[in-house]
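Rotation project, supervised by the postdoc (A.L.). Task for the rotation student: set up a whole-complex structure prediction and record inputs and outputs verbatim in this book. Inputs entered:
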Amino acid sequence: MDFAHSERAQLVLEQVERFVTERVEPHHQTYRDQLVGGPDWTRWKVPPIVEELKQEARGLGLWNLFLPDSVYGAGLDNRDYAPIAEVTGRSFLAPEVFNCNAPDSGNAEVLVRYGSDQQKERWLEPLLAGTIRSAFAMTEPAVASSDATNMQATCEVVGDEVVLNGLKWWTSGAGDPRCAFYIFLGVTDPTAPRHRRHSMVLVPADAPGVKILRMVPVLGHYDEPHGHAEVQFDDVRLPKSSIIAGPGRGFEIAQGRLGPGRIHHCMRALGAAERAFQRLCERALGRVAFGRPLADLGGNRDIIANARLAIDQARLLTLRAAWALDTQGIAGARADVAAIKVVAPNVLQSVTDAAMQIHGGEGMSDPELNWFYVLGRALRIADGPDEVHRRTVARHELAKYGDRGAT
Amino acid sequence: MDFAHSERAQLVLEQVERFVTERVEPHHQTYRDQLVGGPDWTRWKVPPIVEELKQEARGLGLWNLFLPDSVYGAGLDNRDYAPIAEVTGRSFLAPEVFNCNAPDSGNAEVLVRYGSDQQKERWLEPLLAGTIRSAFAMTEPAVASSDATNMQATCEVVGDEVVLNGLKWWTSGAGDPRCAFYIFLGVTDPTAPRHRRHSMVLVPADAPGVKILRMVPVLGHYDEPHGHAEVQFDDVRLPKSSIIAGPGRGFEIAQGRLGPGRIHHCMRALGAAERAFQRLCERALGRVAFGRPLADLGGNRDIIANARLAIDQARLLTLRAAWALDTQGIAGARADVAAIKVVAPNVLQSVTDAAMQIHGGEGMSDPELNWFYVLGRALRIADGPDEVHRRTVARHELAKYGDRGAT
Amino acid sequence: MDFAHSERAQLVLEQVERFVTERVEPHHQTYRDQLVGGPDWTRWKVPPIVEELKQEARGLGLWNLFLPDSVYGAGLDNRDYAPIAEVTGRSFLAPEVFNCNAPDSGNAEVLVRYGSDQQKERWLEPLLAGTIRSAFAMTEPAVASSDATNMQATCEVVGDEVVLNGLKWWTSGAGDPRCAFYIFLGVTDPTAPRHRRHSMVLVPADAPGVKILRMVPVLGHYDEPHGHAEVQFDDVRLPKSSIIAGPGRGFEIAQGRLGPGRIHHCMRALGAAERAFQRLCERALGRVAFGRPLADLGGNRDIIANARLAIDQARLLTLRAAWALDTQGIAGARADVAAIKVVAPNVLQSVTDAAMQIHGGEGMSDPELNWFYVLGRALRIADGPDEVHRRTVARHELAKYGDRGAT
Amino acid sequence: MDFAHSERAQLVLEQVERFVTERVEPHHQTYRDQLVGGPDWTRWKVPPIVEELKQEARGLGLWNLFLPDSVYGAGLDNRDYAPIAEVTGRSFLAPEVFNCNAPDSGNAEVLVRYGSDQQKERWLEPLLAGTIRSAFAMTEPAVASSDATNMQATCEVVGDEVVLNGLKWWTSGAGDPRCAFYIFLGVTDPTAPRHRRHSMVLVPADAPGVKILRMVPVLGHYDEPHGHAEVQFDDVRLPKSSIIAGPGRGFEIAQGRLGPGRIHHCMRALGAAERAFQRLCERALGRVAFGRPLADLGGNRDIIANARLAIDQARLLTLRAAWALDTQGIAGARADVAAIKVVAPNVLQSVTDAAMQIHGGEGMSDPELNWFYVLGRALRIADGPDEVHRRTVARHELAKYGDRGAT
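Outputs recorded:
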């Protein structure tokens, strides 16, 4: 057993840390100042600082670090990339700067693994070059998306074409002016076995029939210029070659996409939690009331200790899940991945809640803490609610005792 | 012991319930549609529907119900008004419709109790008529406001004038175009005994030297057109008669203001919690996944039971505090009031969190639930953080055993 | 709404408080010294001090206070008796001293309501006189007793006799040398509608075929000389007149028995919690570490505040349930009674846990705190586990929205 | 980063698992049957099965595995022994069977590191041979032992002798008929610097002046025949050579003793938690109510998932602390060790609480679960209360930001 990172991971980690500290964090305010946001997404602009920082990071080789493929990406495995993902999570801006942000990273991984040469050339290469962005259209309003059999959007194969219909929301990334394509998940054959019904289709953002209805706010936040869109797909006709890996393989691809993606999400969440915790500690020492620093008042040291315990435990669990993914594959790591998906967002939410509380009125209005808080809350739903992941963990546990896994 | 409401309370309660259900709630969307909001507060407008509904409510006598004074108000005592406040809390719009919203209600009460005839005529009467609004300027940035000795803003008496200087924030209500005056709390004599240093001053919103710097968002929300302002008071000169009850009585008045105000806040919070809980239950029965209503999946019934237990207990505690206030006065009810200030906002936050969770992606974007969630979170800081109120409760408890009350 | 106790309740309450403080608590150690306990229940003896104190209490009229019937008992209704029950719960010894302990109080109430004249004369009168004790045999090993349809013990009517067979455990009170009879619950007609199958039978403790197999320890505690027995009923033949209220009414009687009994249990639990809390506060002020009383170290004041909030809320909920029982009957108060059965034991367990913790090593070995802790833990199972009561609360809540109440 | 155990650790682990499953667990009842226990400790006897199993284990080389020293012990480092300690924690009997139980293991380690040749020959060798047992006398009644400056017992050097006086309790292991010596911690020079005042002294159990006053029960449990004694040391005179490593080094030795000992305690606690969790799952599948296995009722799957998350996280944290101890020494691992001392006992307590709850009435009386529950509760105090360890974690955290560490 060894808790030290590999030499290569350690090396890259230090570079990324330095870049985040020296180049990215000092430009948080630049970014906010340059941003054109608000509910009207058609006016959104990408702050120029993003592209500048991307060029710098790419020049240093700090680019596509998430991609274990050594031809297209950095060739780091999950356990090596995990601590790097954590560091990028400290800054709302860093993931994109390193071209490691969701959903592009997951979309890239799908294309690396399942894409045809043509698909790779058209979509993967510019995505990895950072010249375009993408979105992922899976969740639907009006049904419980955690039960895949509820999905109503369709992608029927008609002759040489695939025809898409349906309403999606939480299509994250669709608001970005650079968003060039969506990966769309829909039902191709409702009569097929449960896990062979769906297909994944590459949809150009400007394909006729694709219509963004609105951007959906998260607790009032629009995440500009990224955005979470409600999108109507209305008889969108595409060549059949737009289907990734062929009809009926959507579920299989989705499963594979989720493992590493959840590791990334969770490690970034823990990076955010660690940053919020740092703010908490600084405030505890820096602010005085009743003649003493807040650290010496009431239960604040217990709060600090408990936050440290929670973050460290969640991080170890996530690193172990990354290791399990590396050594046992996605099937072998399923319960581990479900476990961290419950733990990490909750840690982020609760640590940030405590950090806001110790900041008093200021905490209610601090953009960094507020964003972490909304993120933590949202991640408890995004990519499957806590409840569904707890069910997976319990089913896996009870299976050891012969249970077949009830609903 | 009798848990039934008085006949009069019951009667008014039913009228208020009917009005909220039939007249106010159906206009929530009207209000949102009419609202001009956004970060630029100078463009804010009051939705016309508000004034229409106010006229209706006033016509039915459902007006100034919060005011126990029977000359100026409805003459209901705290325990009778408490359940009415709860019902108004179900709707973000209702408190103002009945002219019962903060901080106007607290400001009115201060004026009824401590105002001179001239002050009453100029400010109280239009406030109670609903033709003007007001704000309360106490909290300051850069210091821990929960420790009153930290206050830096001053209101010096110079000859016949009182001169105000200082920076305030979370001056709630200052964004409203109808806001006509502030009640300002500042230090008059820093050498006086601790509880005789402060004064409360009535400040016309358009007094020279009063400058709104910005509106402070709460977790990204501006609460338009109410708003929480950061306000600079720069050598604001007013006649000495603007001081309420004379110099040095600010702390005393503030204490008296807080008792009923906290009861109102808490009861409204519980009304909001009850509404969120209703939404939770409706969703639990109405949404199906894995072949069953959510109510029959996993721990949802436990969540429902626990929410019911939490709300009911918090309500009883708040009603008892109202009764204590009626029967023992503010001094006798201090620990009771501190207790509810801890309990009720936490219940609102946690019940709403659960309601959002069961709504899945929709819950992340539901305006009603999101607002309740932000409100619950903010109330854990507003009017004193949980930590300070817990200290009050503990000090009161330990005093029974001879403790003098450490910090 | 009025949170004050009635004059009569207040008067009796003060007498009971005085008696507990001045007469009962000073004899706790006497009782422990006189007790002959240990796993071998056949050697158990009742400490003589109990009977002495009973005589005193009876002489003062502080006797059978639990019984709302004004012929047989004190004629106090539930809301009046509730605060008295709380005070008796402070002392492990007090409930019996006032002849108000379970299961005798519940058994007496059953007999008052449903007993024949002959049954009353033979069993009720000596029970109310305090000359005999009794037990209640319902729970069975090997099946989930919270689901009444699981019950396996039988009481068949054969001619003029009723014949009992089955194995019971947690038959509380059976270890007492004075235990003269059991109330036994069994199935008379398995083909009857679900709520008409069971009967309650009065069984003399020395009836042939009744065999105590062992006393069941609770977390290692035997509760001597009360005891929780595992009892074999082996072809126990009794006259048919031993059935209370006639065959098939067992379920109905059991339901009625549970309402007031749960109020008593919960109020006593809160009395115990209040006593543990007092010990916690005294320790917090009396013990010094690192130069300060424990009250001024770390989060202890938060712990104190939270305990006060929890106890007060639980008490109010329980008092309201008592009031609901008085004003709406058992059917109307069902959800209220289920609610308190969840809340009060959990409060006792957690407050006592905190009280033990602040006592350090001493807390691990303090007989009073240890007993409260075991009691709190056990009450979360006894008389229905938390889970079952939460289900009841949730079903009641969802029924408001049209749900028929799933399992 | 690698979460796999070393080959050697894996090999020994499998042997230990097999032995616990096949040889130890089947004799749990034998042990209970052979035990002579009860409050009167002078009658306690060691069940013969213990010595039989010890011989077997020793014969297989599964002996003194805890001792990293490769001359006296197995030579496994902390991270290798940790998973083995976990497995022994599943069985109350296993630690002693492998000669790895507290406080003997800690005492042996002290002697290996600091003992003179003579001390090793007289006490260490028979201890490692398993022919004697030992006790550790540190905690004192009447003072807060978590603050070492409170210690009142003395061991004065007078000429060639050291003279011990004082009252100790929670002297664990002193009840064992085989207990041959105590390690005693007392003050030698109260005027020395804070960490040079204390000495550790080897005291033969039969030394004149040593008097066991009673065995202290833990929540009513005596832990026979181990026992936790209250011991009077009354002018106990021993040769000066009985002091370990010389006068004034007691604090230093105690610090070194605590690191590995806490790892062992925590891993055993997690082994117990894992066993309780297994029982929980088996019960969830095996018991039926309302027509379904308990696993499919209410929130039981959430409880199962949460227990798995809690145990796994606590285990990872403890393994990392073991690794930190191996790679950075005791000083470098201090905060890590404090962290696990908070986490692991709480996990044991809460998982066992859930396991008991799902067992209903049976859970209240199950010897295995009850013992785990008492153990978990007691470990939150033993070896320093949670509060003190949280302070250590917080101080370590705040030191990163320049704090000097308040009390």
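Student's summary: Residues 250-286 of chain B form the longest helix (37 residues).
Supervisor addendum: Chain B has three domains: 7-129, 133-250, 252-399.
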